[in-house]
Design goal:
One of its GO terms (molecular function) is serine-type endopeptidase activity. With about 425 residues, the protein is α+β, with helices and mostly antiparallel strands. Helix content is about 15%, strand content about 25%. The chain has 2 domains: about 5-285, Thrombin, subunit H (Beta Barrel), CATH 2.40.10; about 300-415, no CATH class. Strands 1, 2, 10, 13, 14, 15, 17, 18 and 19 form a 9-stranded mixed β-sheet that branches. A 6-stranded antiparallel β-barrel has the order 4-5-6-9-8-7. The chain has a 4-stranded mixed β-sheet with strand order 12-11-3-16, with no helix packed on it.
């Protein structure tokens, strides 16, 4: 349940079962916020329906970080009366609704649901089976690097603008706004007292649109084009920060701070739990895996390179290891750097040597994969691959000695052509 506290930050003024929504500038519209959320980059954001043994269902938001795991806030997951949890996503490629069910839910163990102030408010939900048609989002790992970054908050539920606050119910539809991370817990924030919050909570204020007279409490007073806040409702909605153009999950919505009953209006604050402060805990539960292990088998093998090669030209975030928005040859280089290898290392023993030369020679002038000597991903094993190998050949010289090169060329010449 998204908690909105008043100026004293001690009284809980509103607890609602509406799921996490947003408020935006009064000179922007609901379609603007819906359009931002409809980007394929944010399809990992989903709605959570919490079914209790008695009473009406609750709502929250979360974000898929693995085909089987959802990241959210802790406080929606702590009720002992939870019977089951259902999840809903939208496949942005087809527009179809995708549903899933929870197998288990895990609030952060040190989270205290009885506290008047929510710290350590992060949790995980494991699904009963993997979601193959929703792309998970990577998590943000630069602990403390969120400050002054632009963050995109995606949520479901109550809507409104900077003048009215979050007053409109719009459950079931995702909307999004942007803001700038202004402060961490314990730091000054104008009229707001953040001393009870730990640095693992990051805050942003709702800077007013031009022509609106309102105090700026922290950070820059200049609003973003889609400036806004998370609104009253259940928490757990993701906040994304771009890393080299790829949205990473940097926070989950936890708390809102208001001065009056116009929750999430101009001058109010949103607080999100920083994901980067909890990566060790997340990694202990979620098999996000070895960096570069794109096939998820727990090891760096040629099969990973083959998957990257097959994905050339796509924007698959799992294969896009250098996070430049497109899968290509540079991602093979990124993988090799993770594996401590170089182009030409056909057997991936970290040395480019005569063993690799022998492999390439055996498959020369044919089609194949990395393990056969295809070092540039074009499926053809030819002089381009030989050149890649020569530039990294592991001898005292940087390329094969002339005698070794002649031997190689001779072995290639007598190797039968493969059809």
């Amino acid at each position: 349940m998204f908690r909105h506290a008043g100026m004293g930050i001690t009284a809980c003024l509103l607890i609602t079962t509406a799921s996490d929504g947003v408020t935006f500038r009064h000179d922007r519209s609901v379609p603007d916020a819906a359009g931002l959320a409809a980007s394929p980059a944010y399809e990992s954001a989903g709605e959570i329906i919490i079914n209790y043994f008695f009473g009406i269902p609750g709502q929250a938001s979360g974000v898929l970080i693995h085909p089987e795991w959802l990241l959210t806030a802790a406080h929606p997951l702590t009720a002992v009366s939870i019977q089951s949890i259902d999840l809903t996503f939208t496949d942005q490629d087809t527009g179809q609704t995708v549903t899933a069910q929870a197998e288990e839910w895990i609030p952060y163990p040190q989270f205290n649901p009885l506290a008047s102030i929510f710290n350590l408010d992060i949790g995980l939900v494991k699904l009963t089976e993997p979601l193959d048609n929703i792309t998970p989002s990577p998590i943000y790992r630069d602990d403390g690097g969120e400050r002054d970054q632009t963050i995109t908050i995606v949520g479901y539920g109550n809507l409104g603008n900077g003048t009215s606050g979050g007053v409109l119910a719009a459950g079931g539809t995702a909307h999004a706004v942007t803001n700038t991370v202004d402060a961490f817990g314990g730091e000054p924030a104008g009229l707001y007292n953040l001393n009870a919050y730990e640095p693992s909570v990051m805050f942003m204020d709702f800077d007013p649109a031009p022509g609106v007279s309102e105090l700026n409490h922290t950070g820059s007073a200049t609003p973003l084009d889609m400036e806004g806040l998370s609104a009253s409702g259940d928490s757990g909605g993701p906040g994304f920060i771009d890393v080299d153009g790829v949205p990473h999950v940097a926070g989950v919505v936890s708390v809102g701070l208001s001065r009056d009953s116009r929750f999430s209006a101009y001058g109010d604050l949103s607080g999100l739990t920083r994901v980067s402060a909890f990566t060790d805990w997340i990694d202990a539960h979620v098999p996000l895996g070895l960096p570069g292990d794109v096939d998820g088998d727990g090891a760096l093998t040629a099969a990973d390179i083959d998957l990257i090669t097959a994905g050339f030209g796509s924007s698959d975030p799992i294969l896009d290891l250098d996070q430049n928005g497109s899968v290509g040859a540079s991602d093979i280089d990124a993988w090799l750097a993770l594996a401590g290898s170089k182009r030409g290392d056909a057997n991936l023993d970290t040395a480019v040597d005569l063993l690799d030369l022998s492999i390439l020679a055996a498959h020369f002038d044919s089609t194949g994969t990395w393990a056969d000597g295809d070092f540039n991903g074009d499926t053809s094993i030819d002089l381009l691959d030989l050149s890649s190998m020569a530039s990294n050949f592991n001898t005292p010289a940087t390329i094969p000695e002339p005698a070794a090169g002649l031997l190689l060329l001779g072995s290639i010449a007598v190797t039968p052509r493969r059809s």
